[in-house]
């Protein structure tokens, strides 16, 4: 008979009073400054869009639970977070019915059909944005000028001026900077949010403060945001002809900070290990950079994160932490 030796070690149990609702409340608190900035810059249009997305998301989840006769899960505030993040990813003034359609897709198709929170393999808000962009491309790329009244003319986003190449072959980083300077868009404007774009991607300062708050509270780790944002900046610096100004503009333009702090870090759709998180964030950064610089669409953040979401099961399969109690032979 074989004499098998059993090695017993202490369990790494961690006790905490944090639950899903606590975490979601912290995320909402972190998003509050950027939300107020969106309301300040886009006025009534911003308020209506935010309310339509949030109410649409909460009602969709409640109705799905009601129809399927499952306990209501709206009390964990995850639907509120999804609705708010969806609003952050669409332009102010998007028709209310489109906001509701996007919320329904995000909650029911992407989240609830797969089993609810913890079971979805894509970020619901980003999937909702992708659905709306594919279905209503004109409305989703019509940007209001900050501070304008509802009848004001639309404006262009900084990323549209920063495009290096693509179908039109728009030249070098120097040409891109010439275009954006000609449009009177400064780095200070982008940092403070006085630019065209989606509701949540305009004010870089408040997004950074919200992300730092989540890191400070231990809700997210610095690993994924730092890897993602820094690598995009480094890559745009290298492929932009080692132009530091071009790289700084890329850092504050579009949804890089919003995606890096608030959507790349989603618990359900990101890897479990630190090494896996670095690989995951690096893949997303490379894809975002390629789309921004050479793709046909100015922004690549949402698609880069969605693509990386699909690779998470594969990353988790091959990237492991050392097992507690493991004894090396």
From TrEMBL:
<feature type="transmembrane region" description="Helical">
    <location>
        <begin position="21"/>
        <end position="41"/>
    </location>
</feature>
<dbReference type="Pfam" id="PF03116">
    <property type="entry name" value="NQR2_RnfD_RnfE"/>
</dbReference>
<comment type="similarity">
    <text>Belongs to the NqrB/RnfD family.</text>
</comment>
<feature type="transmembrane region" description="Helical">
    <location>
        <begin position="47"/>
        <end position="65"/>
    </location>
</feature>
<protein>
    <recommendedName>
        <fullName>Ion-translocating oxidoreductase complex subunit D</fullName>
        <ecNumber>7.-.-.-</ecNumber>
    </recommendedName>
</protein>
<dbReference type="GO" id="GO:0055085">
    <property type="term" value="P:transmembrane transport"/>
</dbReference>
<feature type="transmembrane region" description="Helical">
    <location>
        <begin position="126"/>
        <end position="144"/>
    </location>
</feature>
<feature type="transmembrane region" description="Helical">
    <location>
        <begin position="222"/>
        <end position="240"/>
    </location>
</feature>
<feature type="transmembrane region" description="Helical">
    <location>
        <begin position="77"/>
        <end position="94"/>
    </location>
</feature>
<comment type="function">
    <text>Part of a membrane-bound complex that couples electron transfer with translocation of ions across the membrane.</text>
</comment>
<feature type="transmembrane region" description="Helical">
    <location>
        <begin position="277"/>
        <end position="295"/>
    </location>
</feature>
<feature type="transmembrane region" description="Helical">
    <location>
        <begin position="195"/>
        <end position="215"/>
    </location>
</feature>
<keyword id="KW-0472">Membrane</keyword>
<feature type="transmembrane region" description="Helical">
    <location>
        <begin position="246"/>
        <end position="265"/>
    </location>
</feature>
<comment type="subunit">
    <text>The complex is composed of six subunits: RnfA, RnfB, RnfC, RnfD, RnfE and RnfG.</text>
</comment>
<keyword id="KW-1133">Transmembrane helix</keyword>
<feature type="modified residue" description="FMN phosphoryl threonine">
    <location>
        <position position="157"/>
    </location>
</feature>
<keyword id="KW-0597">Phosphoprotein</keyword>
<dbReference type="InterPro" id="IPR004338">
    <property type="entry name" value="NqrB/RnfD"/>
</dbReference>
<keyword id="KW-1003">Cell membrane</keyword>
<keyword id="KW-0288">FMN</keyword>
<keyword id="KW-0285">Flavoprotein</keyword>
<dbReference type="InterPro" id="IPR011303">
    <property type="entry name" value="RnfD_bac"/>
</dbReference>
<keyword id="KW-0249">Electron transport</keyword>
<dbReference type="GO" id="GO:0022900">
    <property type="term" value="P:electron transport chain"/>
</dbReference>
<keyword id="KW-0812">Transmembrane</keyword>
<keyword id="KW-0813">Transport</keyword>
<feature type="transmembrane region" description="Helical">
    <location>
        <begin position="100"/>
        <end position="119"/>
    </location>
</feature>
<dbReference type="GO" id="GO:0005886">
    <property type="term" value="C:plasma membrane"/>
</dbReference>
<keyword id="KW-1278">Translocase</keyword>
